[in-house]
Q: What sequence folds into this?
């Protein structure tokens, strides 16, 4: 679960554990007065919305979301992956383009379409191969029946 600044606000309990505000509000409603992890008792008048925010957890969640939206290159670790090399079938950053000179590539957003088209082509090839295999099996069965009759 990723924290956010609206519903899943990370809040620190007095014991040091962090939970999202939404979960803490559910704990309040159920009148559970223990930390779900260490079982330390919580104050009866404890209000989830009044607990201090865990800004470190919030920042980590923010950075994680950013990385998931814009993955970083494995080779050039500070560069965002922006392209998909059709030739190598892998994601690349602007720095990687030099190493992929002469290759065909598209913007990363378009890569799902490239992969889907490749998958559809592979599926068609497999279906054709299955049809050919079935035809060969039928011919083999016919040949066996012919031999059995002889």
A:
């Amino acid at each position: 679960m990723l924290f956010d600044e609206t519903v899943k606000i990370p809040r620190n309990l007095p014991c040091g554990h962090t939970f999202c505000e939404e979960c803490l509000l559910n704990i309040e409603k159920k009148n559970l007065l223990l930390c779900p992890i260490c079982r330390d008792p919580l104050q009866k008048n404890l209000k989830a919305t009044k607990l201090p925010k865990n800004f470190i957890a919030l920042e980590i969640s923010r950075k994680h979301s950013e990385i998931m939206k814009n993955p970083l290159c494995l080779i050039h670790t500070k560069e965002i992956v922006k392209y998909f090399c059709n030739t190598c079938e892998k994601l690349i950053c602007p720095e990687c383009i030099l190493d992929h000179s002469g290759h065909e590539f598209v913007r990363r957003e378009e890569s799902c379409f490239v992969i889907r088209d490749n998958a559809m082509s592979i599926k068609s090839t497999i279906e054709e191969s299955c049809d050919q295999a079935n035809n060969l099996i039928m011919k083999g069965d016919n040949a066996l029946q012919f031999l059995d009759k002889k």
